[in-house]
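In full, the data:

***
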Amino acid sequence: MLKTTVAWPDNLALRAYKKNLILQDSEIVVDGPALTQSELDSVASTTHALFTLLWEICKRWCDGDLAKFGAMLGFSVAELEILLWGKARFTPDVFARTDLVKTIDGLKIVEFNVGSSVGGLIQTSLPYLLGLQQNHIPLTNWVKYLAAKVTSGSHGAIIEDAVALPLMQRTLRQMAQALNQGGHTHATVCSQKELEWNGQHLRCNGQPIDWVYPLFSAENVLADVTSYAALKAAVCANKVDMPVPQSGKIFGSKLALALLQQYAEDPQASIAQRELVRHWIPWTAHLQESQLTLAIAQQQELILKPALGYAGKGVVVGREVASEEWQRILKTILTDAVEPFVVQKFYPPLIEHFTTSHPQHGSCSYHGRSVYGVYVMDGKAGGAPLVRSAPADRSAAINFATGGAVGSLPVLYV
């Protein structure tokens, strides 16, 4: 694997902050080891193959019933009812971001992020948005991907929950602006509370809406069901399209990785399917009472994750806590946790050199670990990957929400 760096300007974060693209406390990756185009293509084709396999498992084990499959992956009946609004359904070509780490054993997939909640498009496209020369731009690739799935000249709404919208407004307006500049479709940003439904048309501040791009979660809906009534009625009446279906989010459960591991041991699995899973995916299992003895004994080799979690919340690296604390956490989950957890073989990310940029503190270089997020659109690589990094003396659970830097690096050709 080629190690090289092609840095963005050290003042990238300051320029982005002045243009209102990022928050004042954002730390942006501007230099570090990039991935090659062949690596991105390999991850994308592998992701598509794994999604195809998951869909095959759904059909074999659940007769293609996404509600049954979603229950296997840890979602509640109430959550699944929301994720299955309308007629739009998952296909292996869904928009996704595959998170992976570089290890001494090669690239390993640790998580799928699936559907319209996939983030990082603005952070990975900052050089382009600042007028710098950037190739393989995730934001513009996303625009092309979405435009191909909606009617020319149509009007769409990027919808975020009213509680989260003020914090997300900056990012979502950039996404809408990129869609509008594409010329194929028109998009606006709103919350569910700005929508109206008259039985025939869904409107946002008076504008008829032809399609919706849902950023909100099922949890958001359950917290304020009444405010989502207009949107639910329009989607369930099939009066608005959903070009990136909510049902895709079902496949983002980390229990999907455990299910792939389980299927790889099934006699129905082909040799190629077994090899695909074993090569790319670390051993992953649903944390249940039957796994407790193993999880305690192999603490140093495992990482604990909430199956439906995000942003690094609830993640515990076994080797980073005392054995007594590890056992306490496991037993508490088994007795008190409402949602499922998985244990996964921990592959330490390689320690490499990174440089970051901060609006207030300037640039900083360190040896650290990273997680790469490869965008996948229609089964193909969707541009420069999202890079999240943190110094080696911090936790190996790396995420922007837990203090990691975020950005992108130029794609390499070899």
Notes: Residues 1-6 have pLDDT under 50 and may be disordered. The longest helix spans residues 37-62. The longest strand covers residues 362-377.
